[in-house]
Every structure is written in structure tokens, then in C-alpha cells.
Design goal:
336 residues, alpha+beta, Jelly Rolls, 5-stranded antiparallel beta sheet, 30% helix, 25% strand, signal, secreted, Cerebellin_Synaptic_Org, coiled coil, Tumour_necrosis_fac-like_dom
Length: 336
């Protein structure tokens, strides 16, 4: 701090005793710019270190299970799944509210406005499915932070002497240095805390067994009413939660899961299916006539140990599923 203020004091002395010659004026301005640049570089390096520490800490936290706290992590689980009940005409750039909320961990989703607001910084995945009317198409988009802020500042310039200009620059420089020095000290303290927290998280980390599966269906054919669809061609089954003989996934641990299924219809046929949790509907998907069409459903849902999720036929017994590895079912644990 003493060295910092001594630099400013010397600068002020040089400025007040400066002759008006252009060469000396340019020299002082160059020195001022050099001082500002050097301090800015130091601050940016510290800021980059701060960003890397936060990223590394978030990565460690996202992978760990704290010892003795495996049922409920100290971090807040964030995830939501909502559906829309009402059909109707959409206005220009109308926000679509999905008012039927199944899960809303972390309370980030607002069904009244249809917005998800991130409660913490991090990497997120979002998915949406829309189904058009029989005679109409529909065009939608997913957006982030729609809104723009424009600031216009008008000002007038005036002729000032070179010495007055330098004094004004010194005042600005003093303010900039004070501001940067305050931010620098705050970042140093924050980085120290982040390093301690990162070391603590690494020391206490216990990586859990990965839980997730991905399976496809090989045989095509006619589906019976409410027939469970077995996806018997299993590619991955970490944690052994998926039973290819029954077509059911059984949660080995409680937590927030994501599931996805894709169905593919035969020529001249449509197919209508649903995903269920313990027999209760989570969402529907329709691959319509004239066939060779696909439909995908993504669901985020909290499961307790022993809860089951599967895909079953929802239409009449005359519908046909085109499998041949086109239709699939997958899921994975997001967070405990």
C-alpha cells in the first residue's frame, strides 16, 4: 500500500512541475499509460486465476459425494420438468408457459412466466418438445436473456491546456488505481478462500459409481394396448439399473435423473407411446402417419430408491413400431 501511494505522489510531483513542451508532455502521458497498463495486467492475471479456481471448484463439487452425507449433498440439486396443458393459437414472439410442473428442484422455473432463472452459475442442459396441430405447423425457439440495454452518452469537448489535461488524467488515474487496488485486494482474499475450499473439497471427495444406461430395440412389429416396450439391445448399463428383459429402469439410489426415449413409426402407420414412473404418466410422444417419422421425449424426474421408469404403448393395438435400432431408451443420474 505504501509503494502504491508513493507512485501516485511522484506522478503528481512530475505533473505539477512539468514544462509545457510537447516532448515532455508526450513522455509523461506515456508513463501514465504504462502505469495504468502494468496494474491492469496484474489485476487481469489475478482475475483469470479467480475464474480458474471457481471452475475447478465447481467441477470437483459436481463429481463428489461428501463422506457421511450420501443421501443429501450439501449442494442444491437444480432441475425441472414441466408440460403445457392448454392448446391454442400463439401470438407473435409469445412466451410459452409450461404450467404443469412435475419437478422444480432449486425453484429455478417459474410456470407463471415460463422462464427458468439460473440460481447458480454452471453448465446446464435444456430440452423442449412441441407438437403441432393436425393441419398446422409450429415454429418456436429457445432463448437466453432476451433483452438489450443501450446507453447513449452525449458530451461536449473543450480546449484545455496540456498541463490541465495531465492533471485531469492524474485524477482519473488516481481514481482508477484506487478502484483497481480495492478490487485487487478483494480478489486476493477471495482467491485465498477459494483455494482453501478447493483443497477441502478435494480432500473430502468420494466419487460415486456412475449410473446410466442406453438401449435400443431391434424387432419391429405390432404393439398391444399399454404394452411395455423392451429395449433389449443394451449399449451401456452402469449401475445395472436397467432390466432389458422387462424394459424397466429401477433407481439404485435416490436422486435427480434424466430420461430420453425416441420412437420411430412404420410406413403408413403412426405410433403413440408414453413414459411412466411407477405406472404414472410422465409424458407422451407421437410419431404420426404417414409413417417413417420419429418423436423424442426428454424428462427430468426425482426418483427414490426402487422407483421404476419405463416406456409403454399408449395407442390402440393396431399401431406398429419401427425398431431396427432406430427406437431407443436412455437415462442417467444427474445429482444425488
Amino acid at each position: 500500500m505504501l509503494l502504491f501511494w508513493s507512485i501516485l505522489t511522484v506522478c503528481c510531483f512530475v505533473a505539477t512541475s512539468l514544462p509545457s513542451e510537447t516532448s515532455k508532455f508526450d513522455f509523461v502521458m506515456k508513463e501514465l499509460d504504462s502505469l495504468r497498463h502494468d496494474f491492469q495486467v496484474k489485476y487481469e492475471r489475478l482475475e483469470a486465476e479467480n475464474t480458474n479456481l471457481k471452475r475447478e471448484l465447481a467441477s470437483v463439487k459436481s463429481k463428489r459425494l461428501l463422506l457421511g452425507n450420501t443421501n443429501a449433498g450439501s449442494e442444491t440439486t437444480i432441475g425441472f420438468y414441466a408440460r403445457r396443458r392448454q392448446n391454442g393459437v400463439l401470438g407473435v414472439q409469445q412466451t410459452i408457459e409450461f404450467d404443469h410442473v412435475h419437478e422444480n428442484h432449486g425453484n429455478g422455473y417459474d410456470p407463471r412466466h415460463g422462464h427458468f432463472i439460473a440460481p447458480i452459475s454452471g453448465l446446464y442442459e435444456f430440452s423442449t418438445t412441441i407438437l403441432a396441430g393436425s393441419d398446422n405447423g409450429i415454429h418456436c425457439e429457445m432463448v437466453k436473456n432476451v433483452g438489450y440495454s443501450v446507453e447513449i452518452v452525449n458530451g461536449e469537448s473543450s480546449e484545455i491546456s496540456k498541463v490541465d489535461f495531465i492533471m485531469k488524467e492524474l485524477g482519473t488515474l488516481r481514481h482508477d488505481f484506487n478502484d483497481l487496488h480495492s478490487k485487487y485486494e478483494n480478489l486476493e482474499a477471495e482467491n485465498m478462500n477459494l483455494k482453501r475450499e478447493l483443497d477441502s473439497a478435494k480432500n473430502k471427495r468420494q466419487l460415486s459409481e456412475a449410473i446410466g444406461f442406453y438401449a435400443r430395440r431391434k424387432p419391429s412389429g405390432t404393439l398391444g394396448a399399454q404394452q411395455t416396450i423392451e429395449f433389449e439391445h443394451v449399449h451401456e448399463n452402469h449401475g445395472n439399473g436397467y432390466d432389458s428383459l422387462q424394459g424397466h429402469f429401477t433407481a439404485p439410489v435416490s436422486g435427480l435423473y434424466q430420461f430420453s426415449t425416441t420412437i420411430y413409426s412404420m410406413d403408413n402407420y403412426g405410433v403413440h407411446c408414453e413414459m411412466v414412473k411407477n405406472g404414472q404418466n410422465l409424458g407422451q410422444l407421437l410419431a404420426p402417419v404417414p409413417g417413417y417419422a420419429s418423436s423424442t421425449l426428454n424428462v427430468v424426474i426425482y426418483l427414490s430408491v426402487g422407483d421404476q421408469v419405463w416406456v409403454r404403448h399408449l395407442g390402440s393395438a393396431s399401431e406398429h413400431l419401427n425398431a431396427n435400432d432406430y427406437s431407443s431408451f436412455s437415462g442417467f443420474l444427474i445429482s444425488l
